[in-house]
Amino acid sequence: MDERFGCHTFSTGSQKAKKDSEQMIVSEKIAVAAIAVAANFAAGAAQSQQPIGWGGIVDGLAVYQGKADLDDGGDFSASRAFLRTGIINRFADGSFAGLVLSYGQFSYDFGFPGNQPWEDVRDIRISVPLRFALDGGASVLISPQLRWDYERGASASDGFTYGVFGGISWALSPNLRIGPALGVFSEIGIDDLEVFPAVLVDWTFAERWNLSTGSGLGATQGPGVSLEYAVSDAVKVGMAVRSESIRFQLDDEGLAPDGIGEDSSIPVVLSLQYAPNPGVSFTAFAGAELNGELKLENAAGREVSRQSYDTAPIAGVAFQLRF
What we know:
single chain; mainly beta; Porin; two-stranded antiparallel ribbon
């Protein structure tokens, strides 16, 4: 049976194509795990600088991706928005425990109405970040997570995954903290749990310069590295490169009813951040998404189509509030 995606006809993928696709997913998720741990690691370091006791965090992101041509015809654009909120209890030794909830939506606009693989995708997460301080400047991070990724109209339970990220880091100097981490996570449409290595790094290598594997743009999702320069106490400029991949359950209509969709890319952005005080920051950024690819699997788990898309412009804003 043939399926259409964009304006090109694709035949159902073979088992070899499915295996190759799963191997690519594993490679992408290794990177995803790296940033997920690193983002929590960076957040934990920042949280430890806050007053002891209970506190809260609210942050958000809105980004627009301009039109991108698909390699076999057609085009699409997309917009994304995330909102995250949580409470954190900080202790005198630098340890903390918290509960964080987030909601996100990806909205896709394909250039051929009635011939599109999916439309609006929801992303819901619940995590419990925990950090324990050890002797010698070491700390252990553990962050269990529940997640739901599904197209609007699909069952949220069909898009359910779970996992845990954990790692240990050491302060090798006042300006460098580094250590290994590991993620174990389930994946939609894949039976086995995936295990992903990661590295935690937060390095102020020169005055006003910082390199980290943390989340450089507030609530952005995806692995990468951020380089920042502090122009002043309130203003920072930076560049971030990361690999993003979202895999989600589809509804019972469209080109692959009850199938699975995936969107992956490598965004490269320049950013400008303004933080008038330690509890508030606002960020604007612009750049491009490279190496983009859309994949579609049917309900049986067979790959229906895979299309690369051209470099696409992106721009957005982010904010973070701590109290």
